[in-house]
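Reviewers of the previous submission asked for a worked example of the structure-prediction workflow described in the proposal, so we include one complete record here. The input consisted solely of the amino acid sequence. No template or homolog information was supplied to the procedure at any stage.
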Amino acid sequence: MSAQITKAQATKAQSRRLTEFMCFSIYSANLAFGRAYQPILEKLGLASYTQYIAIVALWEEDGQTVGGLGEKLFLESNTLTPMLKKLEEMGYVRRQRDPQDERQVRVHLTPQGRRLREKGMTMSLVKDTGLSPDEFAQVQKAVARVRDNLLRATRKPE
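From that input alone, the workflow returned the following structure tokens.
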């Protein structure tokens, strides 16, 4: 099979509707998730989904470096640092220099941050997606695989 695109394939690709683009489906699903999470975030007293996933990531592995947390959440430091500062002001996390390496800042959940995560665990959007728990898990894994493949494909050679 040739890697070249036939004229018929090119014509079909040019006539695709917006709703047929996977990138648009993922983008618009992300926006829909953001809207669906808003009432949950309000109940938790959080301003953004990004704050919530930072709490979840720290609950999974407390004491991460700011850089490691940023990599895990796909966030740049200019976005992550102000968000962590806000979570610290709210009493959910504390940041401290690593005693073994002063260049590193480690982030820890406070007891209040742990309680927030536990409270958030009772709120789920699985049912709202209209998918069974098994279907939800399959879709989540497929989307993660797409993300990982795209990251690999776009990674700059060292």
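The mean pLDDT is 90. We consider this example representative of the routine output the project will generate in years two and three.
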